[in-house]
Write a structure and sequence with these properties.
Blueprint: H1 14-24, E1 31-35, E2 48-49, E3 59-60, E4 64-67, H2 69-75, E5 80-86, E6 100-103, E7 115-118, E8 122-127, E9 130-135, E10 145-146, E11 157-159, H3 167-175, E12 180-184, E13 188-194, E14 198-199, E15 214-215, H4 218-228, E16 232-239, H5 243-254, E17 259-263, H6 274-281, E18 282-287, E19 291-292, E20 298-302, E21 305-310, H7 314-332, E22 343-346, E23 358-365, E24 371-373, H8 383-387, E25 390-394, E26 405-410, H9 411-415
Parallel strand pairs: 5-6, 13-16, 13-17, 14-15, 17-21, 19-23
Antiparallel strand pairs: 1-12, 2-11, 3-10, 4-6, 4-7, 5-9, 8-9, 18-20, 20-21, 22-26, 23-24, 23-25, 25-26
Helix pairs in contact: 1-7, 4-7, 5-6
The protein binds adenosine monophosphate (AMP) and magnesium ion.
Length: 416
């Protein structure tokens, strides 16, 4: 007996798939205020405009002496009296003629002074009649003075709506007085794994594992990746390889979640129920991408919730999350930067097997500035993603000779 196979639809190029996905991701409209302390990783829902300048006034960037350059020139190596002392947090007075002010880092420059000499370059003499200081050189005008507004000018937009906050940016927000920030609410994501072979670590000890069983690893890294992207995760556990069970899990997941994220069961095997289950409850709008690893990837809608099905193979699941789910979740939160950044780097390896699909190879930067290849590029070998610190984005049909310049994508950028 012969069975007729339906003609295979061409796989979707990654860039097209990403554009379509971003098109499906409508920005969440709810906004919330959070303490600036808790805003790391969140996406700003408003522009931040500064009501003041930073620093607020000219101040010293050294411990030393605030001087009038002309007076130092005039003193010609003779001592000048120290007429005042200005510590950070206090304010001085007009600098008396032919005198200097003892000044400390961060203290405002007193009116009349136009340079700071660092303390190591002044010879201090302390007497009962007062302190004097002698300089051997003459400072440049403006030396060791941080100018008012050199960081932020009044009225400047310091951070834009759509910016994903990072430690430095919450510091900058605090520097203009923001103690709370308006951010887009966290996406609610329901996560489940499919596969009758899956067992949870802790439920069964390694020595008691039945033949055919494996531990569920995807659940762990997917949950961690979602959390890093600011999501609220509902973990629905492991769903058996049956159509009705898959449909039930999808129905439950669609309630009160923005996104349903699954792993496994999204290929064309008889035990793969994700595709028919999604089609029976909603729509499947994207399926199968021309990348390796990661071909079995799906996007659809289930009862108003977004649905993304990731492959079961751990590396495929990991890589497709970084390349596709991450930008999708950033866009949901109103993020504006989700282009995948790659840099040029020399391959210190040979890749002789060109593939029909665009490949993402697990590599590690070496001390010589090149890239080493992990020895096993199988999509099941999660060690490659731990050993590696990024991916080589290798175009379809391309072999690589050692020394060739290739495109490198760093994991740290994709996981921040
Ligand atoms: P599937 O996409 O369901 O055909 O699964 C492909 C491969 O990935 C199979 O070898 C599965 O056993 C494995 N796999 C699926 N889900 C997981 C998971 N959550 N953790 C680890 N391996 C998995
Ligand atoms: Mg499976």
């Amino acid at each position: 007996m012969t069975t007729m196979r339906p003609p295979r639809a061409p796989l979707k190029p990654l860039d097209d798939a990403l554009n379509e996905l971003l098109g499906f991701a409508t920005i969440l409209s709810d906004v919330e205020w959070v303490s600036t302390f808790d805003a790391d990783g969140r996406v700003l829902a408003q522009d931040l405009v500064s009501e003041l300048q930073v620093p607020p006034q000219d101040n010293s960037s050294m411990d030393g002496y605030a001087v009038r350059r002309a007076d130092v020139l005039h003193a010609n190596g003779q001592p000048l009296p120290v007429s005042q002392r200005i510590a950070a947090g206090s304010v001085g007075t007009e600098l008396a003629p032919l005198s200097v002010a003892r000044i400390f880092t961060g203290a405002p420059i007193p009116p009349g002074a136009d340079a700071v000499v660092m303390q190591e370059e002044g010879e201090l003499t302390q007497t009962d009649a007062g302190d004097t200081v002698r300089f051997t050189g003459v400072p440049e005008k403006g030396q060791w003075i941080r100018r008012a507004g050199e960081d932020v000018t009044q009225g400047a937009k310091v951070l834009s709506k759509g910016e994903r906050l990072a430690p430095a940016s919450i510091g900058l927000a605090a520097s203009i007085g923001m103690h709370r920030l308006s951010v887009v609410r966290r996406p609610k994501v329901a996560l489940f794994s499919t596969g009758d072979e899956l067992v949870m670590p802790g439920d069964v000890e390694p020595e008691a594992m039945k033949p055919g069983a494996i531990y569920n690893s995807n659940r762990f890294f997917l949950r961690a990746l979602l959390r890093r992207l600011g999501c609220e995760v509902t973990d629905l556990g492991i769903v058996p390889d049956r159509l009705e069970a898959t449909q039930d899990a999808l129905r439950e997941a669609a309630t009160n979640h923005d996104l349903i994220l699954t792993s496994g069961g999204v290929s064309v095997g008889e035990e793969d129920h994700i595709k028919p289950a999604v089609e029976s409850l909603g729509s499947l709008d994207l399926w199968q991408i021309a990348i390796k690893p990661g071909k079995p990837f799906a996007y659809g809608k289930v009862q108003g919730a977004h649905f993304i099905g990731l492959p079961g193979n751990p590396v495929s699941s990991f890589v497709t999350f970084l390349l596709l789910v991450r930008p999708f979740l950033l866009k949901l939160q109103g993020g504006s930067k989700f282009a995948i950044q790659s840099i040029a780097a020399p391959a210190h390896f040979t890749w002789a097997r060109a593939d029909k699909r665009r490949e993402f190879l697990r590599v590690c930067r070496n001390a010589a500035g090149g890239l080493d290849l992990f020895s096993n590029q199988s999509s099941g070998v999660l060690t490659s993603a731990v050993w590696g610190d990024g991916l080589v984005d290798n175009p379809a049909g391309q072999t690589i000779q050692s020394g060739d310049v290739v495109r490198f994508i760093s994991f740290s950028e994709l996981m921040a």
